[in-house]
From TrEMBL:
Subcellular localization(s) per the UniProt record: Membrane
N-terminal signal peptide: none
Membrane topology of the entry: Multi-pass membrane protein
Membrane spanning stretches: 35-57, 69-88, 94-115, 127-147, 153-171, 192-215, 227-247, 259-278, 284-304, 316-338, 344-363
Pfam families, sorted: MFS_1
Name of this chain's protein: MFS transporter
Domain called Major facilitator superfamily (MFS) profile: residue spans: 192-375
Protein keywords: Membrane, Transmembrane, Transmembrane helix
């Protein structure tokens, strides 16, 4: 079980490594905000393109092989992200880095569902809690090393050492192939899987809204100093990690339906607190409430995607994850456009209103027991 949990922690380390390197990459390449936005889009596109293939690799070659492929891509590209000077070089490198992260992301979820099936227990929320913890640790360690005077390349080596140690030790204990080696390369998502993917998209869009717009909201709407505006996302991330680490017990006790309905209501209340509380400290509380409510939504949906029987579980998880990532790709631009047409506060309320889809669909179609299947 330690190896399975470390898989999610390592995936978080991969995802969190890029954020502290962004200002340095931008400075080396001498690019403006628009070009930086294109770079960030390349990261997401690389993940999105690789995720369906990762589902096939998991079915045919197993989690251990596929995870090692993803980590190898991160190994090859993370040092380049810390040293490449040209914009075109960063575009190619970020797409390959995103492909590695996407491969790792799909693989950790496939293995998580396999472990849930084998044990008959709800474990996905706790697994994703370790993923969230990994992103926080990775970003904090690299930031701390950079603050102490380390070069971006040297700072990123801390993550590479951890990944290498995992591959040589616990990574060998990951699960092998679970699917049909002669199975289809592509399977059209069933209606149930498509629905789960769209609901994942909403959850990821809400998460992306806090990631990309919480600091902007605090600076522009609440006149908070930019130096402390990052506290909004920090509080959100910590509460999400805590919520996920305790989520398995919550899901097992209350069931997926109650967790999704309650989570959606909590997210909506958090956004309302952010928008209507004029004191920025209460806004921080609101961001934390959103994180707590959102913590177990995506893990429950991914668990349901792997548990359904209308298409192979590995391909279903890849499809749901890919659709979810569209929320991260589309979210920043959609929220920005909405804010330009009205206001950032109205845009955040619009994101909150999307939780109604999660609440209604969960109340109608999601099972009450944690180990029942979505038919």
């Amino acid at each position: 079980m330690i190896a399975y949990r470390l898989t999610f922690l390592m995936a978080g380390l991969c995802m969190g490594a890029w954020a502290p390197l962004v200002p340095f990459a931008r400075s080396r390449a001498g690019i403006d905000d628009g070009a930086l936005g294109l770079l960030l889009l390349c990261l997401g596109l690389g993940s999105l393109v690789m995720m369906p293939l990762a589902g096939v690799l998991n079915a045919r070659r197993g989690c251990r092989f596929t995870m090692h492929v993803g980590i190898a891509l991160v190994f090859l590209t993370l040092p380049l992200l810390a040293t490449v000077h040209s914009f075109s070089g960063l575009v190619v490198t970020l797409m390959l880095f995103g492909a590695g992260c996407g491969t790792v992301d799909v693989t950790m979820n496939v293995q998580g569902v396999m472990v849930e099936r084998a044990t008959g227990r709800s474990l996905m929320s706790g697994f994703h809690g370790l993923f969230s913890l990994g992103t926080i640790v990775s970003a904090a360690v690299i930031t701390g090393l950079l603050w102490l005077g380390a070069t971006p390349l040297l700072a990123s080596c801390a993550v590479l050492v951890a990944l290498g140690a995992f591959v040589l030790t616990a990574g060998r204990q990951m699960l092998g192939r679970s699917g049909d080696a002669a199975g289809p390369v592509f399977a059209r998502p069933s209606g149930n899987v498509l629905m789960l993917g769209i609901l994942c998209l909403i959850a990821f869009l809400a998460e992306g809204a806090i990631l990309d717009w919480s600091a902007v909201f605090l600076v522009q709407v609440r006149a908070v100093e930019p130096a402390v505006a990052g506290l909004g996302y920090a509080v959100f991330a910590v509460m999400m990690a805590l919520g996920r680490l305790s989520g398995d017990r919550i899901v097992a006790r209350l069931g997926p339906r109650t967790v999704l309905v309650g989570g959606g209501l909590i997210v909506m209340s958090g956004f309302v607190l952010v928008v209507f509380a004029t004191n920025w400290l209460w806004n921080l509380v609101g961001f934390g409430v959103v994180g707590a409510g959102l913590a177990n939504v995506a893990p429950v949906y991914l668990s349901l995607a792997g548990a359904q029987r209308t298409m192979p579980g590995e391909l279903a998880i890849a499809a749901a994850t890919s659709l979810g990532y569209l929320g991260i790709l589309m979210g920043p631009a959609a929220i920005g456009l909405f804010a330009q047409l009205s206001s950032l506060s109205a845009a955040l309320l619009a994101v909150a209103s999307l939780m109604i889809a999660i609440i209604v669909s969960a109340a109608r179609r999601v099972p009450t027991a944690s180990r029942q299947r979505l038919h």
